[in-house]
Amino acid sequence: DAMVIQNPRYQVTQFGKPVTLSCSQTLNHNVMYWYQQKSSQAPKLLFHYYDKDFNNEADTPDNFQSRRPNTSFCFLDIRSPGLGDAAMYLCATSRPQGIETDTQYFGPGTRLTVL
Amino acid sequence: GQNIDQPTEMTATEGAIVQINCTYQTSGFNGLFWYQQHAGEAPTFLSYNVLDGLEEKGRFSSFLSRSKGYSYLLLKELQMKDSASYLCAAKDSNYQLIWGAGTKLIIKP
Question: Closest to B45 (Cβ–Cβ): which among A41, A105, A109?
Answer without folding.
Answer: A105
